[in-house]
Amino acid sequence: MADSAQEKTEQATPHKKQEARASGQVAYSKDLTGALLFLAGISGLYMAGDRLIAELENVYTTSLSLPVLLLETQSPGGLLAHLGSFVIAGVMPIMMIALLSTLIPGLAQTQLALSPKKLAMDLSKVSPMKGIKRLFSMDAIANLAGSLLKIALVGSLVWYTLDGAIDRIGALTGRPLREILSLLLELIFLLSFRVAAGLATIGFLDLLYRRWKNNKDMMMSKEDVKEERKRTEGDPKIKGRIREIQRSLALQRMRTDLKSADVVVRNPTHFAVALRYDRAQDPSPKVVAKGRGLMALTIIRLAEEYGIEVVENRPLARELYRVVRIGDLIPEKLFRAVAELLAYVYRKKKKFKIRRETTGVE
After folding, report:
1. 264-274: pLDDT as tens digits
2. Could you report the per-residue pLDDT of 6-53, keeping only the tens digit for each?
3. Listed residue (127, 131, 133, 195) closest to 159, CA to CA
4. Which of 35, 89, 158, 250 could form a Cys-Cys staple with 203, CB 3.0–4.6 A?
């Protein structure tokens, strides 16, 4: 029984997930981030390549006339800044794309789960024994499988791309250098895009695995769930005792308030509402107690014990229970119905009083 209680068969509770997130235990794939960075860099080079080449040509052209410019400007620093501006203008868009492609995937995976604990020194990471255990862990096996898969993928894509272009490469013999470079750049970009897409697919699968592994590591035993519930919500026995005391106190307050009621409206056992009308204190009748089900039956029983008139009026009882809270005055739309009810009760009490005075019979 003890072993079954310690088996981790329960999904992590929201509180457990929150604690793990606070400690930096979130699913994160470096492979996916690296693949997206590579893909973004290649895309940036492809889109901004013409501009980069144009800016580099400006640098090259300017550098050829560098001695003349130095004599004319007498400002080496300004000239270097001028040359640097060409390079920055060409490289900056690519750098911005690379930066965003690093930040966005990371933030999307971790959902801004930044933990200072991850920055603290962890001596277990330099422990030889724990290092040996990590070499043969499930994560190490998964990393090895991922590395082999990436090697196989890149090799296959290189072979597939070159095999499809072998005739075009062979036809370049004796062609102009510009045409040769153009084809080589085309093949490099094509291969790079294919490799980046393949690595991104592997990275996505790696992220799914790490999420599964993270959820598995956070699983809890039934005993863990019970202990957490005790820590966060309190002992169920103590909570039950508190609820029992609260019900007892509420019943005592209801008994006290019910004694001042003039009438109890019932429906016939589902709802019960006790009304009091004290002209010296309240401008209109007030609900002093109400309940449904077992509480309604309790109110009716106590009212009969206290000698309070109990009247069955299904629509009025239901409406009073629905719209008026305990301690509140009745709304104006119910004035007429409640006034007729109280008038009936007062007439009945008056007749009973006259009969008792004349006959002496209780």
Report:
1. 999 877 899 99
2. 677 778 877 777 777 777 677 778 888 888 888 877 877 777 666 666
3. 195
4. 35
Query: For residue 299, what is the enclosing H or E element?
Result: helix 294-306
Query: Amino acid letter at 211?
Result: R
Amino acid at 96: M
Return the bridge partners of 267, or none. 271
List residues bridging with 274 in a β-sheet.
264, 289
Closest CA to 33 of 118, 114, 98: 98
Is residue 243 within 8 Å of 237, Cβ to Cβ?
no
Q: What is the full DSSP assignment across 27-87?
A: ---HHHHHHHHHHHHHHHHHHHHHHHHHHHHHHHHHHHTHHHHHHHH--HHHHHHHHHHHH
What count of other Cβ atoms lies within 10 Å of the Cβ of residue 240?
10
Pick from 271, 277, 274: nearest CA to 263: 274
Structure tokens of 304? 């009969």
Average of per-residue pLDDT across 221-225: 82
pLDDT digits (tens, 9 = 90+) for 114-123: 555 555 555 5
β-pair type (271-276, 220-221): unpaired
CATH of 259-359, one of 3.40.1690.10, 3.30.70.890, 3.40.630.30, 3.50.50.60: 3.40.1690.10
pLDDT at res. 280: 84
What Rg value do the Cα atoms of the chain yield, rounded?
41
- Torsion sign (Cα): 230, 233, 236, 242: positive
How far is residue 324's CA from residue 282's CA, in Å, rounded to a whole number? 15
Task: State both tokens at 335.
Answer: 């004035």
Give 271's strand partners. Answer: 267, 292
As a whole number of angstroms, the distance between CA 298 and CA 290 comes to 10
Q: How far out from the chain centre does Cα 112 lie? A: 11
Q: Give residue for tokens 């519930």.
A: 229
Whether the CB-CB separation of 329 and 282 falls below 8 Å is answered with yes
Q: At what angle do helices 76-110 and 30-64 cross, to 10 degrees?
A: 170
